[in-house]
Each structure stands twice: as C-alpha cells, then as structure tokens.
Amino acid sequence: MRVIVQNEPNNPLNKGIVVFHAGSNIANTWSDFKKFSTADQEYYNQLLPLEDCFIDGKTDSTEVKEIKPKLIDENTIQINSQTEVELTELSLIDDPKAVEALQYLKSKGITGDISTLLQSIPVSKVKRRQAKRASINDQVKNAAAKILKISDINPLGKKLDKSFRNNNLAHTISLINGKINQLVGKPSGTRDEWTIDDWNKVDSKFNSILKEVAKEVLDVKN
C-alpha cells in the first residue's frame, strides 16, 4: 500500500483495509497437506534406501557400492488362518482374577469346557476378501516403488506415461493393477466383488506379474 500523507503513519488518510481471498481461511490446511505429502515421499524413500557400504567389510576401503532392493523377497511370512489354541492348566482357585472371570462367565450363562470355548473362531469369507484386497493394494504400491528404484527411474517424473498425465509411480501402479485385473478376467472397480479364488489366483501369479511390469518399464526407459 502507498501512503497519501508522508511521515504520518497514524493519519486517517493513510489507513486502509486489506481483504483476503475467501480461501485464505484454509491456509493451515494446505500447510498440513504439504507436510503430509513430504512425509509420504519420505516414507517411500525409506522403503528404498540408497545406502553405501564398504566392500568386503573393509572399513578403510574408499570403494563403495549401491544397495538396491530386491523385487521379490523370498523370505516373507504370510498368515492365512488361526490354528489350534494350546492351553496351560492353572489353579484358578488361587487366582482372584480367574475366579472373577469365571463368575462373570457364569453370570452371562456361559458354561462348558474352557478348551471348547477357546477354539478358533472361523473368519467369514467377507472378512477374508477384505483382508486380501487391502493386502494386495499395499503390495502393489510397494512393488511399484521397488521397480522404479531398481530401474533408476524418478517416481515423480512422467517419462513412462506417453500422455504425460500420471507420474512414473502412479503409472507403474496402474500397470500392475491392469495385469491383475486381466489375470482375474474382471474390469477395474469390481474388486469388492472378487471371490477368494480370485484373490488366491492373484497371490499365486503376483511375482510373475511384477517381473513382466519390471521388464516393460525397463524397455520404455531404454
């Protein structure tokens, strides 16, 4: 703003009103979003660290090598269902909490053998499908980031998408999801309707799909 009367900051003619755009009231929200976006990028960078290590364990060596992630990790653990529950026989009478627990069960009308009551509860098909879907979504995102890292491709660039609409990470995720949909023979947007057999088929062919996408991405780069 410019003053009308020089050297008189309190002069009424030098006073004015500044009107902000209506969107200024969400400035803090945008600031938080930018922080979240930065944290999200840092998360993927941590998944694929670029670290230096000494060759052959020699700490005095000046030669370093780059460590890249494995596209397929064979040392994975997958939990499919709950098995038998092992029980240890305790003296409940000497444990006040155990006595209280038994009294509570009795008040609810629950009776019977404890080992029978603690048998594994079967998981519904709906819950299993939901768990499979969530698991595959995470696996696809992580695998796409690994493929780009191995291929030395910037995930935020737009070299892979010929239309230049999606960045390389989003494009690679789309490639993997497209092959998954093709494998099952169902269009995009219908995964909430997929059966357990569909998801099991995806699990069995997932590593093969990653290898195909990794080759396609490398071919586009070269």
Which labels suit this protein?
single chain, 222 residues, mainly alpha, two-stranded antiparallel ribbon, 6 helices, 2 strands, 48% helix, flat
Describe the 3D structure:
By secondary structure, the chain is mainly alpha-helical. Helix content is 48%, strand content 3%. It has six helices and two strands, in the order H-E-E-H-H-H-H-H. Helix 4 runs parallel beside helix 6 and helix 5 packs across helix 6 (196-221). The longest helix is centred in the middle third of the chain and has 26 residues, at 125-150.
Question: Which residue ranges are poorly predicted, with pLDDT under 50 across at least 5 consecutive positions?
Answer: none
**What is the percentage of strand-forming residues?**
under 5%
Silhouette: flat
**Structural class by SSE content:** mainly alpha
Q: Helicity range of the residues?
A: 40-55%
Supply the number of helical segments: 6
Largest pleated sheet: 2 strands, antiparallel
Order of helices and strands: HEEHHHHH
Strand order of the largest sheet: 1-2
How would you briefly describe this protein structure?
This protein has 222 residues and is mainly α. Helix content is 48%, strand content 3%. A two-stranded antiparallel sheet has the order 1-2.
Task: Give the topology.
Layout: H1 27-47, E1 52-54, E2 64-66, H2 96-107, H3 114-117, H4 125-150, H5 168-184, H6 196-221
Antiparallel strand pairs: 1-2
